[in-house]
Amino acid sequence: MRPLLLSFAATMFTIAPACAETVLFIGNSFTFGANSPVRALNADRVIDLNNERIGGVPGLFKRFTEQAGLDWQVSLETAPGRTLGWHLAERRGAIDRPWDHVVLQEYSTLDPGKPGDGTATIADVRRIADVLRSKNREVRITVNATWTRPDLVFLSDKQWSGTPVQAMANDLRRVADQAAARVHGTVAPVGQAFTCAIRNGTADANPYDGVDYTRVPLWSYDNYHASSYGYYLEALVIFARVTGVDPLTLGPGEDAAEELGLSEAEATALQQAAHDAIASNGGCGR
After folding, report:
1. What secondary structure letter does DSSP report for 111?
2. What is the DSSP code (8-state) at residue 43?
3. Three-state DSSP class for 68?
4. Which residues of 63-94 are buried (b: 16+ CB within 10 A; e: fewer)?
5. Which of 73, 92, 129, 224 has the fewest Cβ atoms within 10 Å of its own Cβ atom?
6. What gap in Å lies between CA 151 and CA 68, rounded to an integer?
7. E strand or H helix that includes residue 26
8. Can you list the alpha helix ranges (DSSP code H) found in 183-220?
9. How would you classify the pairing of strands 101-105 and 21-27?
10. Would you say 73 and 61 are in contact if contact means Cβ atoms under 8 Å apart?
């Protein structure tokens, strides 16, 4: 195990507690790492409450905590294509326990029937928070503000067709901000980190045009889900937000990046994008 990695002195990065912490990830394919080796990687390091042998983004998170010398017990409850309201209705028995931290991942367009409408998301985050706080009043809730989907931006007749690449992510972020504020929670600016990676020259902005094909592809073949690079960036942002540890301290030789086939330069660049998104509260991606 690597030596303890210290947090930034800046206010955005604080020293994580020395005692063991529990965290539950509630989400869908964006959490379990669909279309990527991330799905199975590190499954032996986390607790899958559905017994599906998934590692996913929670598995990456766990790997980061180990390398940082932190003691975290990481659990997940995921199902593909589901909203937060579905998890509360169908999986409450699994999630209704005392947790120190909970990370919430909504459906990629918020309301499946009304893309971009955050009404149900805000209400469901509040309902889940009420359930969680009935078991632990001090539970810390993080809402994941996810990425822009290229298939809804660069193809015609879609909700965000013709808008700038950051527009969808920023729309999702505004809803996440509202939902988190209602429950005194925090937001993981994953979508803004994707934009930060594009703006700093690390990642390809448009997977359809073939222009920046030599840059890191953040999205999978369907231009909907993330690639291994995208999930790695997602996990870095959540790790930084939840633990307070600067992702840059993981360094170019970070173990999970190596196992996923990321070069040291790619790992460092994605860590920088995560750092920038957290330090600016997503400002570099807006």
Report:
1. S
2. G
3. coil
4. bbbbbbebebebbbbbbeebbbbebbeebeee
5. 92
6. 36
7. strand 21-27
8. 190-199
9. parallel
10. no
- 194 half-sphere exposure, CB direction, 13 A CA radius: 31
d(CA 231, CA 220): 10
* CA 115 to chain CA centroid, nearest Å: 20
**Dist CA 206 CA 223 (whole Å):** 9
First to last CA, the chain: 37
225-237 CB burial, b ≥16 within 10 A, e <16: bbbbbbbbbbbbb
Answer for the pair 273, 200: CB distance below 8 angstroms, yes or no.
yes
For the CA atoms of 148, 23, 270, 38, what is the dihedral angle to 10 degrees? -80
Q: Which residue has the tokens 């307070």?
A: 244
- For the stretch 210-258, pLDDT in tens is 998 899 999 999 999 999 999 999 999 999 999 999 999 999 999 999 9
The pair of three-digit structure tokens given for residue 213, joined into one six-digit string: 């094909």
Which residue in 224, 221, 234, 229 sits closest to 203, CA to CA?
Answer: 229
Helical ranges in 36-166 per DSSP H: 56-67, 84-90, 92-95, 119-133
Structural contact between residues 103 and 25, judged by C-beta atoms closer than 8 angstroms: yes
| CA-angle at 280, arms to 274 and 286, nearest 5° | 90
Write the CA distances from 230 to 30, 86, 167, 207, 267, integer angstroms: 10, 25, 18, 13, 11
Q: What is the pLDDT of residues 19-66, one digit of tens each?
A: 689 999 999 999 999 999 999 999 999 999 999 999 999 999 999 999
CA distance linking residue 229 with residue 171, whole number of Å: 23
Distance between CA atoms of residues 121 and 128, nearest Å = 10
For residue 260, CA distances in Å to 34, 113, 231 come to 14, 35, 11
SS3 206: coil
